[in-house]
Specification:
Blueprint lengths: L1 E3 L15 H4 L2 H9 L7 E5 L1 H9 L4 E6 L1 H13 L3 E4 L2 H8 L7 E6 L6 H6 L3 E6 L4 H13 L4 E5 L8 H7 L8 E4 L2 H10 L3 E5 L9 E2 L11 E6 L7 H6 L2 E4 L11 H12 L1
Parallel strand pairs: 1-4, 3-4, 6-7, 6-11, 7-8, 9-11, 9-12, 10-12
Antiparallel strand pairs: 2-5, 3-5
Length: 275
C-alpha cells in the first residue's frame, strides 16, 4: 500500500528530518560491537538507485519516501520487507529532507548486523584495508572501486568513516551493499595475522626512512597469493606500527612536483594494478 502525504508536518515523515547521529547513536555503535554484532541503528539511502540496491541486498526498510510516479516501482519490495511506502509532492519532499533537488526516492533502513572480521578474512583473497580514513566521500569512492575491480571485502579501523553514511552511500552509488566489510580494533595485529595466513600485505606510502618503497609498476605478486591493500590518512599516511606490519611498501609514480593522489583515486589505481 502507498500512503499519500500532503502535509510536510506529518509525523510519519519525522525520520527524514533526523541527522546522521540520531540515526546511529554512539551508544548504538558501541552496542553493535559487543552484543553479538547486532545493530539497532538506521541509515539513509538517498536516490532511487541506492534505495533499489539496498532492497536487492536484503536491507530491511523502515520507511521510504517516493515521488508518486516512482512509488509504484518500490511498493511491492518495501511491503515484502515490512516497510512503509510514502509518496509526496516535490515541494514536500524538498522541505522535509532539506535537499535542494528532491530525489525520486529516499529511504530509512535498519542497519544490518556487523560482520565478523575473522570470518571475512578467512573467506577473502583480495582485501582493502582502511586506516584512519575519516572522509565519508573517500570511503564511498573506495568501496565503489573495490567492488568494480573485483576485490572481496573491506576492513576498517575504528576511526575510519562509516560506509553507510549518506555521503558514503551516495558516492558509492549503493555498491557498498555488494562489498562485505568489518571493523578491526587492532590494525598491526590484524596485518600480522594476514601475513601468517600467507597474504601479501601491501601498504601505500610515499617514503620510509629505513625500508624501500617500491614503485607500484615494479610490484610483482604470484597470481595465487592472497593480498591486502592498506591505505592511510591523506595527511599522516600510515602509522609507523602499520607500516612495520606490511610486507611490501609501494607508491604510484607521480609527475614532477606532485607528491600524491587523493586516497580514493589511488585506491582505484592500486586495486587495478594489484588485482
Amino acid at each position: 500500500m502507498i500512503i499519500e502525504v500532503d502535509d510536510a508536518s506529518d509525523e510519519r515523515l519525522n525520520a527524514f528530518r533526523w541527522r546522521e547521529r540520531q540515526l546511529n547513536t554512539i551508544a548504538q555503535r558501541k552496542a553493535a560491537q559487543v552484543n553479538n554484532l547486532e545493530s539497532t541503528g538506521m541509515f539513509v539511502a538517498e536516490g532511487d538507485l541506492v534505495v533499489r540496491r539496498a532492497l536487492e541486498a536484503g536491507c530491511k526498510p523502515s520507511v521510504v519516501l517516493c515521488d508518486p510516479k516512482c512509488a509504484q516501482d518500490f511498493v511491492a519490495d518495501i511491503t515484502q520487507h515490512g516497510g512503509i511506502t510514502l509518496s509526496a509532492s516535490a515541494d514536500i519532499r524538498r522541505e522535509v529532507t532539506g535537499l535542494g533537488v528532491p530525489l525520486d526516492a529516499i529511504g530509512v533502513f535498519h542497519r544490518p548486523a556487523l560482520r565478523d572480521a575473522q570470518t571475512l578474512i578467512s573467506t577473502s583473497n583480495r582485501l582493502v584495508i582502511l586506516d584512519c580514513i575519516d572522509n565519508p566521500s573517500n570511503v564511498g569512492a573506495i568501496a565503489r572501486s573495490a567492488v568494480a575491480l573485483g576485490w572481496d571485502a573491506m576492513l576498517l579501523d575504528t576511526t575510519s568513516s562509516d560506509p553507510l553514511t549518506r555521503r558514503a552511500l551516495r558516492v558509492s552509488m549503493g555498491t557498498t551493499f555488494n562489498l562485505p566489510y568489518a571493523r578491526i580494533a587492532d590494525m598491526p595485529s590484524t596485518l600480522s595475522d594476514l601475513v601468517t595466513r600467507g597474504f601479501a600485505v601491501v601498504g601505500m606510502a610515499l617514503s620510509h626512512p629505513s625500508r624501500p618503497v617500491v614503485p607500484m609498476t615494479h610490484v610483482r605478486l604470484d597470481d595465487t597469493q592472497p593480498r591486502a591493500l592498506v591505505l592511510g590518512s591523506e595527511r599522516q599516511g600510515l602509522s609507523q606500527s602499520t607500516i612495520e606490519a606490511c610486507t611490501i611498501l609501494t607508491s604510484i609514480p607521480m609527475a614532477p612536483g606532485i607528491d600524491s593522489l587523493n586516497v580514493a583515486s589511488a585506491t582505484a589505481i592500486a586495486c587495478y594494478a594489484l588485482k
